[in-house]
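During the reporting period the student researcher (J.K.) took over the structure-prediction task from the postdoctoral fellow and processed the backlog of single-chain submissions. One of the processed entries is reproduced below for the supervisory committee.
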Amino acid sequence: MKIIYNDIFLEHETGNHPENKNRLIAFGDIEQSTIIDGTSYLSLVHNGQYIADIQEKCNLDIPLDEDTFCTGKSFEVAVQAVGASIMASHSGDFALIRPPGHHSFPGKASGFCLFNNIAIAVQNLVNEGKKVAILDIDGHFGDGTSKIFYNTDKVLYMSMHQFPAFPGTGYWEDIGIGAGEGYNINIPLPPYSGDDIFLDAFNTFLPVIRCFNPDVVAVSAGFDAHKSDMLLQLNVSVDSYYEIGKVLQKNFENIFAVLEGGYNPEVLVKCVENFIAGINYEEKKHSETLTESDVKVFQDYENYCNHLIVKLRTYWDF
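J.K. obtained the following structure tokens:
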């Protein structure tokens, strides 16, 4: 797995907003990739009126909501982020992009996100005849991605996220509807969950992804579950991301990843490097003391987890 990146992703200007260009500047001198034009792929997920509205508001420097900013270059940058995600989905690489995407709905921007980069890339793979599992390891629930694939059995969506936290949804009871029933899996993590809970959640529900037998695993790669991130109260170390990368590579042949959150730039670099090292079966790049959760936090997690396992046994063999 290699990084797909271009300096155009620095041109989405958001000032002192948590989602700012310093997130990518922290990576230093990265080899530039030639990014394909993502324009023709937008309509795989987003309606035409929404696309036109985003372009107009970016041209006028009008915020999309109180948390989601845009300026004159933001539309072009967001389109390039989609293009990089499409490239990563075909090459098995890591799209190091911004703005992020997993809170974006077909007709609504949200949570710093303009277009849903990973959903567009995944829908393109589905249209090519692929079965795709999305593993969302961002500390926030990817409500946009979940909604987009909520009623299909061609995409398995699994999210590990702090609950409660923005966007306020992601209940374990929400498992999809229609053909998608059982294909939406939300694993709520109580605030102050450590490495023990984060890795237990991943390993406990990994058999569902194996049972789904995807052609491709798409990782919504957010790193704001780290203990030093400013926007959440999870307590995960850089080591967990290495372990997740290593286990994914051991179990699945085709994997790609798209950057989502992670708002401590110095830590974000370490998390991404560890994740890619795990995927590539390289030595761990960074290490911290593993974190353990308090007994009450673990009890709350197990309560969520046990209810979810009972519900999913109707659909999947654990």
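The committee noted the following: The chain has a mean pLDDT of 97.
J.K. will present the remaining backlog at the next meeting.
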